[in-house]
Design brief:
With 616 residues, the chain is an alpha+beta fold.
Length: 616
């Protein structure tokens, strides 16, 4: 018997509706592609033969799978096999047409992934990260029985890209100790290989951090897709924002890209790019004030041409060999779809399209560190306000909220809440100075910006000050727990998902990549700068919490580990603070749709019970 859609709330329909990611296609077999979908109720990897229109589910695991790559010839699907969301595992390989899985690189122990590069000749470079060894890179040549270690460093790094002919490898690294501003080393892969780095020789270095008062990051965007081409597309922050340039690693020549639109205006905000097939042009992705757009850039004449995309957010794009560009697009009001600049929908998820939601309003508020951008949504048909209001704080912290479709905020709107999302200092898309500002006063700076927007929300008549909910996941969950302790008079409830709750303990237990980031943010370890970790830890302020607290946590989470959350909960219990805790068997969030619905239902029920309005 089919489900009566009219009986299913719109907010649940949005979660249950099938979604697809932007397809990734094989370099030498562009009709073979991979994407991720939740069509079965769990996010898994799918293979798509575009020539025949055949779709095949590649992975099928209880807690889902999202990390996968196609070999350049399109013959094999590589996917990362971890344990119940703990992000610690090995790469497996499966034929594109189907068949048994096998361990892709035998002999490598489980680890956190630090990237993967698959060469056209069968060369493989696997990046690994462990607490014991930091970052290691391993090279396996075609026909070799096992991989050999070619790189090792205690600081975090990873695989950048292999050149088209498989002779050069770009490595993104933070050997200088600044995890927010990486450097690039390009090495030549020597015949034979060997242990301890003996199978490589350094060709070029690009380091904008070492010896500089104002460090600037660089990051690998990819080698030119042409045989023998030694040009590397690089993102850099030399002008105080992210923008691309071309670096010929053989000659050292750097080519700046003066990206100006048809009216001669420089693109504001952050800019990234990727090579178009043939390497005669670039596909440019421009991100500014929570929205994004696409351009094509001709290397011959420097002409920048805007591609026709709707107002909203491009969640990824790829240039096809036939000259078209495919992109994943959505807005806060309209669900995502994979579209083409040819004017077609490239890939449509099976089943009904989820209900839409409410457009966002842009609000700019003067904060202590400059103007703060917030995205605001008001519940439909609820009058002029003031409304019960959810401040949903994004994670990262080097991330940002955008004008894109999200089922969580839409659910709060359906229940009569206004939703405010703040791109606080630390957020991306507003220049390097804005992103870097949170260092050393971690968490406290972000809360100052959130408080400034809260003041606007109350004085403007949007928000009811007695019914203000602070909520978020990951870094947003951390800021939620910190906020209800540091700013107890500002919030009526706190709802935190997978948060940092006890920062020194979190540092001790988290994955190595996040230890590197924390050392950068705080200027050292908890032993070296204990006063900074203490000042930024929610546990420090738990006695000042005045409001009920709801916490959800994944018991296998390597990013915000469970022990430090239990420390915070134990303190709440000892102090007699009202709280509820939900623990689930997964990692840093869940890839199972029904589990996501359950979690949000519990959050909404908690809020409505404490603010009035009964259960969901």
């Amino acid at each position: 018997m089919s489900e009566d859609k009219s009986a299913v709330p719109a907010w649940e329909q949005r979660f249950r509706a099938a979604r697809v990611s932007l397809p990734d296609w094989a370099e030498d077999a562009p009709d073979r592609a991979l994407y991720v979908s939740n069509a079965t109720g769990t996010y898994e990897v799918y293979a798509w033969d575009r020539a025949t229109g055949t779709h095949r589910q590649v992975t099928d695991r209880p807690n889902g799978t999202t990390d996968a790559e196609l070999s350049p010839d399109g013959d094999a699907v590589w996917w990362f096999d971890d344990h119940d969301g703990d992000e610690f595992g090995v790469w497996r390989r499966q034929p594109f047409a189907g068949g048994p899985d096998e361990e892709a690189v035998p002999g490598l122990e489980p680890s956190y992934s630090a990237g993967l590069a698959l060469g056209r000749d069968g060369t493989v470079v696997v990046g690994r990260s462990t607490d014991e060894h930091g970052t290691t890179l391993h090279l396996r040549r075609p026909g070799a029985a096992e991989a050999v270690e070619i790189y090792r460093h205690e600081e975090y790094g990873g695989v950048g890209d292999l050149s088209h002919d498989g002779t050069l490898l770009a490595i993104d690294h933070t050997e200088h100790g600044d995890a927010m501003h990486s450097a690039i080393r390009v090495v030549r892969l020597l015949p034979g290989g060997g242990a301890g780095g003996a199978g490589i020789e350094t060709v070029a270095e690009l380091d904008e951090v070492t010896g500089r008062d104002e460090p600037r990051g660089v990051a690998c965007l990819g080698f030119a897709p042409v045989e023998g081409d030694t040009r590397l597309l690089v993102a850099h922050q030399r002008t105080g924002r992210w923008e691309p340039m071309i670096w010929d690693v053989a000659t050292g020549a750097e080519t700046a890209l003066p990206l100006r639109d048809e009216q001669g205006r420089e693109l504001p905000g952050d800019v990234s790019a990727q090579w178009r097939p043939g390497a005669e042009a670039l596909l440019v992705e421009h991100e500014y004030e929570a929205r994004s757009e696409l351009f094509s850039y001709s290397l011959a004449d420097g002409r920048l041409t805007r591609l026709d995309t709707p107002r909203g957010t491009v969640g990824g794009a790829t240039a096809r060999p036939d000259g078209t560009v495919e992109y994943l697009w959505s807005s806060a009001a309209e669900p995502s779809a994979v579209r083409s600049t040819a004017g077609t929908v490239v890939l449509r998820a099976p089943g009904p399209v989820p209900p839409g939601s409410i457009p966002v309003e842009d609000v700019w508020v003067d904060g202590p560190g400059g103007r703060v951008h917030a995205l605001v949504q008001r519940p439909a048909g609820a009058g002029e306000g003031p409304f019960p209001t959810v401040f949903e704080v994004h994670g990262g912290p080097t991330h940002h909220d955008s004008d894109s479709f999200a089922a969580g905020p839409a659910a709060w709107l359906d229940h009569g809440f206004a939703v405010v999302r703040v791109n606080y200092r630390g957020s991306t898309g507003y220049g390097q100075a804005w992103t870097d500002a949170l260092r050393e006063r971690v968490g406290l700076i972000e809360l100052e910006d959130i408080a400034a927007v809260r003041e606007w929300a109350v004085t403007s008549g949007l928000a009811d000050p007695a019914r203000l909910v602070l909520t978020g996941g990951s870094w947003g969950g951390y800021l939620t727990l910190l906020g209800i302790g540091v700013q107890p008079e500002l919030w009526a409830l706190g709802v935190a998902a997978v948060p940092v709750a006890d920062y020194p303990t979190a540092y001790a237990d988290e994955m190595e990549a996040l230890k590197s980031l924390d050392r950068t943010l705080f200027g050292g370890t908890p032993e070296e700068v204990p006063e900074r970790f203490t000042a930024s830890s929610p546990l420090t302020y738990v006695e000042q919490v005045r409001v009920p607290v709801y916490i959800s946590a994944g018991v296998n989470d390597p990013r915000c580990p469970i022990r430090q959350i239990e420390n915070y909960v134990e303190r709440l219990e000892r102090l007699g603070k009202p709280h509820e805790v939900y623990r689930y068997d997964a990692g840093h969030g869940s890839l199972v749709v029904e589990e996501r619905i359950k979690q949000l239902r519990l959050e909404i029920d908690f809020v409505r019970r404490h603010l009035g309005g009964g259960s969901v």
